[in-house]
């Protein structure tokens, strides 16, 4: 069994959306061994910083919150799809040749995974691609960008996916992950009433050749 961490590490200098300073996490030491008998710290961070799951409330008024998410949607088999040849956006045409089945959870590996800093021109999923995914009946989609869409005033990608009940997982790191089938563990923090939550996402690959019966 091989385990791959596909999460972004949380630290103050990490890439954040559009390089906005207010999205940078702040880790503060509240007590150390010079002032007490234990070490304790506190973190302040945006729900959409780093690897995270979006809930419908993020884009839809009165939408479901992250604490209502069915964990079976994010603890599940998944498929990593290599789209590193795409330069700008993922469209319906890019997806039509891929074998997608109902209830699949797909992770899109793009050239974003090779960026060490936030790239304003990151590869994203456009409306046609999102709408195509809804017709396939998938249950979740992940991408190696801090946003699944870019420069869409109406947020068509988010809304199309959310209205279809498709989970959105953003901020993945897939540089060292080969295309193929894995088991995904991507449960977000259990925060009541939140529109998103940070997630520690990992992939597990079973090596059945080494399993003795």
From TrEMBL:
The keyword Phosphoprotein does not apply. This is Kynurenine formamidase. Its EC number is 3.5.1.9. It catalyses: N-formyl-L-kynurenine + H2O = L-kynurenine + formate + H(+). Pathway: Amino-acid degradation; L-tryptophan degradation via kynurenine pathway; L-kynurenine from L-tryptophan: step 2/2. InterPro entries: KFase/CYL, KFase_sf. Its cofactor is Zn(2+). Pfam families: Cyclase. Catalyzes the hydrolysis of N-formyl-L-kynurenine to L-kynurenine, the second step in the kynurenine pathway of tryptophan degradation. Coiled coil: none annotated. GO terms for biological process: L-tryptophan catabolic process to kynurenine. The lineage of its organism: Bacteria, Bacillati, Bacillota, Bacilli, Bacillales. Homodimer. One of its GO terms (molecular function) is arylformamidase activity. It comes from the Bacteria. Keywords: Hydrolase, Metal-binding, Tryptophan catabolism, Zinc.
